[in-house]
Amino acid sequence: METKDFDYYLPEELIAQTPLENRDSSKLMILNKENENIEHKSFHNIIDYLNPGDCLVLNDTRVLPARLIGEKEGTGGKIEFLLLKRVELNTWETLVKPGKKAKIGSRFVFGQGLLIAEVIDIGEEGSRIVKFEYEGVFEEILDRLGQMPLPPYITEKLEDRERYQTVYSKNDGSAAAPTAGLHFTEELLQKIEKKGIKIAYITLHVGLGTFRPVKAEKIEEHKMHSEFYIIDEDTASIINETKQKGNRVIAVGTTSCRTLESAAYENGNIKADSGWTDIFIYPGYKFKMVDSLITNFHLPESTLIMLVSALLGKEKTLNAYETAVKEKYRFFSFGDAMFIN
After folding, report:
1. pTM for the model
2. What does the pLDDT read at residue 211?
3. Cα-Cα-Cα-Cα dihedral sign, residues 49, 53, 57, 58
4. Which of 23, 257, 268, 334 is the S-S candidate for 251 at Cβ 3.0 to 4.6 Å?
């Protein structure tokens, strides 16, 4: 399969720049794996498509304010760091702009010396491995100095940075939000539980590889980035019980989907586990765990639209995207959602 097979036309004005005032008022496209039906609803209608006994799996990762603006020690030249993942306690893999300033041994100052970084190595695809020096608690300093690492296609300023977090975010560690979860409110989750739908939480810390384009012409040659995930005993037990009773496991977002498929056995059970996953799901993949998926509309030629195509079928996926453009759906992180039923 070729990467260009997953391209589609998207007018720039459909890329959502800001979140809606009410999280659950976004549009929701309902799609069916078994037929060609397409329905157009509001996200709060999702409850009508969930059945008692189903299990909704949410990713409770929390986005770090991982974008740091500072200056080069000695010269005062402006620099931007984006934290990708923690390597050791005070050592991080980062993206640095401009990269040519960040040679091994270079030092950078943030917040008038509250945080100092030294480049100690060069990583994959030009990333930099940096060691931080500071006094106090790193997360508190980051909270004070850092900005939300919004994707490059969002150019508007985010007024409230909690809007790039899910209402159930808990475990710090992501460089990007698990955006399908942004549509849920606490009230909607309470209604869902009241209806008899189980809610289970996994953690997958989203890396910026999510936004990296697929450069290989043939998708089979693309190498996925790896991301850290955790599935605890309670979650594994809820999901296994759901499967045993013949009910659906519904992944909220591609991050939950990739985590579940990474930890699933061929027999449809899942194990409590943690580790790194670089699973790449594209058409031809046989799902072991996920029955249904709630997800946003993704970039052309991205690994995420390939994952959706693996579950729904490529032609139906591209038809759904074409319909979404016609119906003026909002795309990407702050955009609308689809439910593959």
Report:
1. 0.93
2. 62
3. positive
4. 257
